[in-house]
Structure formats: structure tokens, C-alpha cells
Amino acid sequence: MKVALVNCFDTFLEREDSLRRFFLERGDEVTALVSDFCHIDKKTRMLAPNGYTTIHAKPYQKNLSVGRVVSHLTYAKAVASFLEEGAWDLIWVIAPPNALIAQCGNYRKRHPETRLVIDVNDLWPESFPIEKIKWLPPFWMWRRLRDSNIGEADAIVTECDLFRKKLNLPEQSSQTIYLCKQDAYSDVTERQPITDHIGLCYLGSINHIIDIPVICSILRSAAQTASVTLHVIGDGESRDQLLSEAAKAGAEVVYHGAVYDEAEKRHILNQCHFGLNVMKSSVCVGLTMKSMDYFAYGIPMINNIAGDTWELIECHRFGLNWTAADNIDWSTFDVVEAGRKARNFFERELTYGRFAQRVESVLEKL
Question: Is residue 145 within 8 Å of residue 98, measured between CB atoms?
Fold first, then answer.
């Protein structure tokens, strides 16, 4: 089978890597596409990731800008032109940007012999954190670009159940496939009980969608029980604000920057009792990338995100769901058992093997 994997963003590369591995292991001929523009660093990449084909995207500097919209539209058109140069048995497109859904949907109309799977890994503009402007014309038009074309797919995959509910997708043609970590991290260190110190970690992008006031509320609550250290792994435009406000909330703040080496990341996380999974309430996300690392390393989460993560914590008790009215007795929370449950959930649901089973089930229905 000749397969095209279509993606734009660096943040979805891990998803695309897993798909590429799956199809290669089946013996399929795989072409994996990605933008030549790194959307996190705002730089054009000099070399394509190993095994990938880059498609040109116009650079831009601000996430909320006309330049970004133009970049996505031109990238999607370039992808469509590339696809027209070949014949494909299957196109698996990871979205957003919503323009990719439109272009690949149009390709499917022109080539009905090709199967199309649309893999929704974020909702835009639903994930935009300022609620009152989500219904302005540019946002409405971007939403319509997705909603009016997603029906061209033979199957729709979502990264979490929340997205399926938000998009009102029929069960017979849609399926949730959670993110996965291809490395199983067999040398996970068990958490230590809380005594006179509480270690917390914030991992990931430090941007406009994280809820710094909520993080500070958590830190102030923990500081009533013990000394608190906040380890910060990541970077972004809100970094200085987070570091400053966290220190004012009573935490010793240790900033590690962006850490890509897994051994170094594991060393930092092993010093922590909890991982923070905190975003503004207006953000629409079910299962974050940072939560994948917390699960993999067996770290209980403190979470304020509705949807899949909230429901999973309520069911499996591998962390705490935080509300403004919470009054937690930190000293009695069993971080050891919660850490074991987090790791067990990872092994059951978030490994590459489980991911491959779910992808196979999608293909069986095509």
C-alpha cells in the first residue's frame, strides 16, 4: 500500500513518527510530509527530519497573525500539489491546520479510489483562550474550513474523546486514538512519600494558554504543608511571568529550560511528587503532551483540564483534579500509589503497541 502521512507542526511529529513506524512495519511504502518551517522556534529548518519530506511553508513571527494564516493556506496548497504528483492508496492527514483538511478533502473528491483518514489533534479556534473573540469572522471562517470538509474522510480519528464530542462525530466513522510514547521507559523510579518537602514540575510550552494564577494557587496551598520546589522544563513567551509569580507564591523555582535529553528529563522529574497539567478553562484540550510524560514516568498529576484527563483521574485516581475551592491535605495524599496507577495506565493505554492496535482497527473498517 502506498501511504502519504501529512502534517504541518513540530508538535505533531511524535504522532507522525508513530504512524510512520506502524506503516513501515507493515511493509507499506510511506511518504511522510512535514513543514520546512519550525512553528515553535519560528525558523526555517535546514535539514528534514530523518525519513521525512519537507514542504515549504512561508515563515511568520506571531502565532496570532495574518502571516500565520497565509503560511497555513499556502502550505496546504503546496501539499495538495505534491499529492497530485503521485497516486496514493491512503492519505492520513494530521490536523490542524484546518486548511489541510480542506485540501485533502478536495483531493479525495478528485480521487475517490484513495482512502482518507483525518486525524484531529487539536481544535482550532476552539482552543483559543479568549472566549469572546472565537466567534469573530476570521475564527468562524477557520472553523468552517474544517467542518465543511471533514465529512470527505473515510474515517475520522481524534486524539481524545473530548474532540469527538465537540465535533459531534458519529461512532461508526470515528475513533479515539490516544497519543503514545514509543519508548516504554522501563527504569521508572517510584515516587517518594511527602514529608517536609513537596516537589512539583511544570513541563511544556510556557505560553498564553497556561493558567499562571491557578499554578500559583496550587503552590500556595502546598506551601502551607511543606517547603515547595517548582521545577520548570520548557520555554515560551510567558516564561518570565511564570517564574516570577511562582517565586512570589512561596516556591523555590528551578528553571531548566527546554530539555530534550530523556535521561536529563528523567533526573529532574524523579525529584518531583506531582506534575502540573494546568491550562486556562477556555482552552479545549483532552489529553496534553506533558501528561504523556507524567504518565510514562509514573508521576501523579495535578490537573484542571476538563475532558478526558479529568475523567481519567476521577476513574483511576492517579492524581488530583484541582478546583478553586480545593483544600487539599497534602501530607496524606498517597503519591506512591498514585504514581503506580499513573504508570500502569501508561502501560495499558499509551504505549506504541496499544497505539498500533488502534490504528489497525481503523484500517480494518476502511
Answer: yes
Q: What is the pTM of this model?
A: 0.89
CA–CA dist 319, 307 (Å, integer): 15
According to DSSP H, which parts of 206-299 are helical?
Answer: 212-223, 239-248, 262-269, 289-296
Residue 286 grid cell: 483532552
Provide the grid cell at 314: 476521577
How far is the C-alpha of 210 from the C-alpha of 214, rounded, in Å? 9
Distance from C-alpha of 5 to C-alpha of 159, rounded to nearest angstrom = 16
Question: What does the pLDDT read at residue 136?
Answer: 64
Cis preceding linkage at 213, omega within 30: no
Q: DSSP for 320-350, please give it.
A: EE--TT----GGG--HHHHHHHHHHHHHHHS
CB distance 282 to 257 below 8 Å? no
Tell me how far apart the alpha carbons of residues 298 and 134 are, in angstroms, rounded to a whole number: 36
41: left (phi over 0), alpha (psi -120 to 50) or beta: alpha
Residue 225 · residue 330 · CB < 8 Å: yes
- Checking phi first, is residue 298 left (phi over 0); if not, alpha (psi -120 to 50) or beta? left
Strands of 102-193 (E only): list them: 115-120, 155-158, 174-176
Distance between CA atoms of 14 and 179, rounded to whole angstroms?
8
Angle subtended at Cα 41 by Cα 37 and Cα 47, rounded to the nearest 5 degrees: 45
Q: Helices 289-296 and 335-349 sit at what angle, rounded to 10 degrees?
A: 110
Alpha carbon distance 259, 342 (integer Å) = 22
Cα-Cα-Cα-Cα dihedral sign, residues 314, 316, 317, 318 = negative
User: Quick one: angle between helices 98-110 and 66-84, nearest 10?
Assistant: 20
Per run of 10 residues, the mean pLDDT along the chain (length 366 residues) is 96 95 98 93 88 95 85 96 97 96 96 97 77 64 88 95 90 89 75 94 91 95 95 94 97 95 90 95 82 92 93 94 80 94 94 96 94
Beta 29-35 vs 174-176: how paired, if at all? unpaired
**230 Cβ partners below 8 Å, 6+ apart?**
200, 201, 202, 219, 246, 251, 252, 253, 254
In the block, residue with C-alpha cell 511524535: 14
